[in-house]
Write a structure and sequence with these properties.
mainly beta, 6-stranded antiparallel beta sheet, 126 residues
Length: 126
């Protein structure tokens, strides 16, 4: 078994693609992914998986739909948000590019229940 240390700044500097998460590692059945995002994404949900978003750089606006309606939660650097399975959500950046670390089951597609041109089925490793 090899233990690898990852420098997040260097890892984020190693790729430029937006909305295309990179696989940084695995913890049990969960993938650790890094993504650069800018602009807004699509409304979607994950039927069976929770998702953790840790903002490393920038500010993320997480739009969520609940029984009471839609709301937006701003998530800044050093903050995280967990989106429960089944909750419809749409990430959007505020003020430019955002770097996020994602923790989610390995089988999770980042577009959830929506298949579109942004759907990535095979994640590149760092």
């Amino acid at each position: 078994m090899t233990i690898t240390k990852i420098n997040l700044a260097q890892a984020f500097a190693s790729f430029d693609e937006q909305w295309s998460p990179r696989l940084a590692g695995q913890v049990n059945d969960c993938a650790i992914k890094l993504a650069k995002i800018e602009g807004d994404f699509i409304w979607h949900h994950h039927e069976s998986e929770d998702e953790l978003f840790l903002v490393v750089k920038g500010v993320l606006a997480m739009h969520i739909r609940e029984d009471s309606g839609e709301r937006v939660i701003e998530v800044g650097e050093g903050e995280l948000i967990i989106i429960p399975r089944g909750m419809e959500h749409k990430p959007e950046t505020i003020g430019g590019e955002v770097h996020v670390l994602l923790v989610e089951p390995s089988t999770t597609l980042h577009t959830g229940n929506v298949q579109c041109e942004r759907t990535v089925t095979e994640f590149k490793s760092l």
